[in-house]
Automatic annotation (TrEMBL):
Catalyzes quinol oxidation with the concomitant reduction of oxygen to water. It comes from Salimicrobium jeotgali. It is found in: Cell membrane. Residues 38-554 form the Cytochrome oxidase subunit I profile domain. Keywords: Cell membrane, Copper, Electron transport, Heme, Hydrogen ion transport, Ion transport, Iron, Membrane, Metal-binding, Oxidoreductase, Respiratory chain, Translocase, Transmembrane, Transmembrane helix, Transport. InterPro entries: Cyt_c_oxase-like_su1_dom, Cyt_c_oxase-like_su1_sf, Cyt_C_Oxase_1, Cyt_c_Oxase_su1_BS, QoxB. The lineage of its organism: Bacteria, Bacillati, Bacillota, Bacilli, Bacillales. NCBIfam families: QoxB (TIGR02882). One of its GO terms (cellular component) is respiratory chain complex. It catalyses: 2 a quinol + O2 = 2 a quinone + 2 H2O; 4 Fe(II)-[cytochrome c] + O2 + 8 H(+)(in) = 4 Fe(III)-[cytochrome c] + 2 H2O + 4 H(+)(out). Pathway: Energy metabolism; oxidative phosphorylation. This is Quinol oxidase subunit 1.
Length: 649
């Protein structure tokens, strides 16, 4: 029995037990459904083994939406707990676990998956490529992310979730103050998922530099592709820092090293520095693709080319550079001198300048434009004022002396969410709605989409604006309860109502997907938005090979020019197309990483050795494998093109 005790949840509650039952029943239902409808072969051949960037993007999207639900439930429980003084809905231990898992799930497994989903689906199409540079590596990236996410979420019902905050500061995350294995899940699951993200970064840098269509020079790329390029450069510089820090933290917990301990030469602040050297660029890893999405959406629905293209590109580069020079503002109150605080205060506030340039460029793009208030455009318009408020409060936090008042209060929580929700979630929902027709061949219902937008926009403001006030009144973050005399009750109650509005908005999005999948017309053409960039020059739904003929680019908006200026976009004849073969190796390797991670969490060394051997064998096989791909023959391409539109190019 001693062996099985380590798998028990340290703080069991009826909620946990109900969740275990629900997870078990859901798993049984899914397996039974796949078996009943005889979809195992289809699932394996079309999805689990796919190397098609479009299908991988869709799998990232589905995963991101699932993680949004998972993290959203955590958020609702936190807001419900603090909605009234002295509430006993959650215990202190439960609250610690919930705010920890909420932050980790939303940042690592929801937001990162969302941006990677859209980059995977859109970037190769925008640059006129058949696929990414390394298709099989792209599949491995997804399965590493997915297995890391599943391993982390397993902590909820086996062994217990981490409870030392999403930043997992030492010594709180050390064995002495976090003796149960929850933090092991944090350290190892994030290493597995982070490795997948790092591989993605390298893959997309090579793809964008080496696989652009003829004539598409760097300064002719769409803004979303530019933002993806800079984002992936940030990933390749920032994520190795996190990987090393997590490895060191893992060794402290499993092998008794002293990198971050308070004795034997350890330094807890070393973890804080490592984390935020990664952590602040991570904010821009999330936000820069959002800026690219807004650039595409605002240009399309203003019926104007993007104002100040060159300055937009320069602003992205400047933001990415400054992102690495601001990490110390996360611990202004932790003992640096006035000189160090002043330097990082200046760099922090300097980021507002290139960000402001982008906002004015979007406004000038809309100036005298023929604006269409579609759902993607509403998210883009809603982003500007809410994000600006978040940015201004960021400048306030960047003032080192004032930060002594704001630090570790709900003011900081409000700032972060007022930046991240419009700066990432609004953008991802705008991008998902905008590119949904190209992904699935039908459009989401506009009326339901607008209902969802207004619920989410109003809910965001109602949920987080009161936190600015309660934070200035002294409410500390991560407090699971408070007394009535503190005066925080009304603000927290309003925040709870705002969270309910957000939840209703996301429920409407789910309903919209169901309703549109069932009732929306499939006769939407290839370019339902009258868009400007190359992804809309493909067939809908997009064939495996993306383009029957590689496009020839001679402007920043080649598709728009081909529609309205008569320029020829496809100049060659249809020929045989070379494509990569599907492979089950990425999925199997991801499964081995999951098993190895689970073994490390519980120090089950035989399990770790077997899984590591499996990974080594797969790497050995791949090193000597001869796989030259396959050809889609010219006639098959012509038949596909005829079937999709009734004519060939």
């Amino acid at each position: 029995m001693e062996f099985f005790k380590q798998f028990a949840v340290p703080n069991p509650t009826p909620t946990i037990y109900l969740s275990m039952v629900a997870i078990g029943l859901t798993l049984i239902a899914v397996l039974a459904g796949i078996t009943y409808f005889k979809k195992w072969g289809y699932l394996w051949s079309e999805w689990l083994t796919t190397v098609d960037h479009k299908r991988i993007g869709i799998m990232y999207l589905i995963s991101a939406l699932l993680m949004l639900f998972r993290g959203g439930v955590d958020a609702l429980m936190m807001r419900a707990q603090t909605s009234m003084p002295g509430n006993e809905l959650l215990s202190a231990a439960e609250y610690n676990e919930i705010f920890t898992t909420h932050g980790v799930v939303m940042i690592f497994f929801m937001a990162m998956a969302f941006i990677t989903a859209l980059m995977n689906f859109v970037v190769p199409l925008q640059i006129g490529a058949r696929d990414v540079a390394f298709p099989r590596l792209n599949a491995l990236s997804f399965w590493l992310y997915f297995m890391g996410a599943m391993l982390f979420n397993l902590s909820f019902v086996i062994g217990g979730s981490p409870s030392s905050g999403w930043t997992s500061y030492f010594p709180l995350a050390g064995n002495e103050l976090s003796p149960h294995i929850g933090t092991n899940y944090y350290m190892i699951a994030l290493q597995i998922a982070g490795l997948g993200t790092l591989i993605t970064g390298i893959n997309f840098i090579v793809t964008i530099f080496k696989m652009r269509a003829p004539g598409m020079k760097l300064m002719k790329m769409p803004l979303f592709t530019w933002s993806a390029l800079i984002t992936n450069l940030l990933i390749t510089f920032a994520f190795p820092v996190l990987t090393v820090a997590l490895a060191m933290g893992t060794m402290d917990r499993l092998f008794g090293t002293h990198f971050f301990t308070m004795d034997n030469g350890g330094m807890a602040m070393l973890w804080a520095n490592f984390f935020w050297v990664w952590g602040h660029p991570e904010v821009y890893i999330l936000v820069l693709p959002a800026f690219g999405i807004y650039s595409e959406v605002i240009s399309t629905f203003s019926k104007r080319n993007l104002y100040g293209y060159t300055s937009m590109v320069v602003a992205i580069v400047v933001i990415s550079t400054l992102a690495f020079l601001v990490w110390v503002h996360h611990f202004f109150t932790m003992g640096q001198g006035a000189l160090v605080n002043s330097i990082f205060s200046i760099t922090t506030m300097a980021i507002a300048i290139p960000t402001g340039i982008k906002i004015f460029n979007w406004l000038f793009t809309m100036w005298k434009g023929k604006i269409q208030f579609t759902v993607p455009m509403l998210y883009s318009l809603g982003f500007i004022p809410i994000f600006t408020i978040g940015g201004v409060t960021g400048v306030m936090l960047g003032i080192a002396s004032a930060d002594y008042q704001y630090h570790n209060t709900m003011f900081l929580v409000a700032h972060f969410h007022i930046v991240i929700i419009p700066g990432v979630v609004f953008a991802m929902l705008a991008g998902m709605t905008y590119w949904w027709p190209k992904m699935f061949g039908f459009m989401l219902n506009e009326r339901i989409g607008k209902w969802a937008f207004w619920n989410i926009a109003i809910g965001t403001c109602l949920a987080f604006f009161p936190m600015f006030i309660s934070g200035l009144d002294g409410q500390a973050r991560r407090m699971y309860t408070y007394s009535e005399v503190a005066g925080f009750g009304i603000w927290n109650l309003l925040s709870f109502f705002g969270a309910l509005g957000l939840a209703m908005g996301f429920i409407l999005i789910v309903f919209n997907v169901y309703y549109s999948a069932r009732y929306a017309t499939r006769d939407i053409g290839d370019d339902p938005w009258d868009a400007r960039t190359l992804e809309w020059a493909t067939r809908t739904p997009v064939p495996e090979y993306n383009f029957a003929v590689t496009p020839q680019v001679d402007s920043r908006e080649p598709f728009w020019d081909s529609k309205y200026e008569g320029k020829t976009l496809f100049k060659e004849e249809i020929k045989d197309i070379h494509m990569p073969n599907n492979s089950g190796q990425p999925f199997i390797m991801g499964a081995f990483f999951f098993v190895a991670g689970f073994g490390l969490v519980f120090s089950l060394w035989p399990v770790v050795y077997v899984a590591a051997a499996g990974i080594a064998v797969l790497l050995f096989i791949r090193s000597f494998e001869q796989d030259d791909g396959r050809h889609i023959h010219e006639q098959e391409v012509r038949d596909t093109e005829n079937d999709k539109r009734g004519e060939t190019r």
